[in-house]
Design a protein that fits this description.
By secondary structure, the chain is mainly alpha-helical. 46% of the residues lie in helices and 5% in strands. A two-stranded antiparallel sheet has the order 1-2. A hairpin with a 7-residue loop joins β1 and β2 (42-44). It is rod-shaped and about 80 Å long. Bound molecules: zinc ion (ZN). Zinc ion binds next to loops.
Length: 123
């Protein structure tokens, strides 16, 4: 029989399932999952472990990989959000510039260059 370290066992709940009667299976993933039926409670994940801290998790529930995924998702969201903000400022500045040119702005080329430089992040 395999001996499991205390560090390894610490990743597991003392028990799983609706009534907390299910002892942890240390050969399986330490995370708990909901089957979708409200009566079953949080069961131990049935996948084989071997991933994440002390190898206590399955590939899908590896907390390190999950955190990395979250960081990547946030970075993507931030990039998209910053781009949208730049577009809004650009649109607003462009409208104001067109208005200024229509009203006789005497240096439309410089005005356009300044707006483009701000939009492209060069100013
Ligand atoms: Zn799992």
């Amino acid at each position: 029989m395999t001996e499991y370290s205390e560090e390894f066992k610490a990743h597991f709940r003392p028990a799983y399932g609706r009534y907390g009667h299910d002892r942890p299976d240390f050969a399986r993933c330490a995370d708990s999952v909901y089957s979708g039926d409200a009566w079953s409670g949080a069961k131990q994940c049935s996948r084989k472990n071997g991933h994440g801290p002390d190898g206590a998790f399955c590939k899908q529930h590896d907390p390190v990989a999950l955190a990395a995924k979250q960081v990547a998702r946030f970075a993507a969201w931030k990039r998209e959000s910053d781009q949208k903000a730049r577009e809004i400022v650009f649109t607003s500045e462009s409208k104001a510039a067109i208005r200024a040119i229509a009203e006789g702005h005497n240096d439309p080329m410089t005005l356009a260059r300044e707006i483009l430089a701000r939009y492209e992040g060069k100013a």
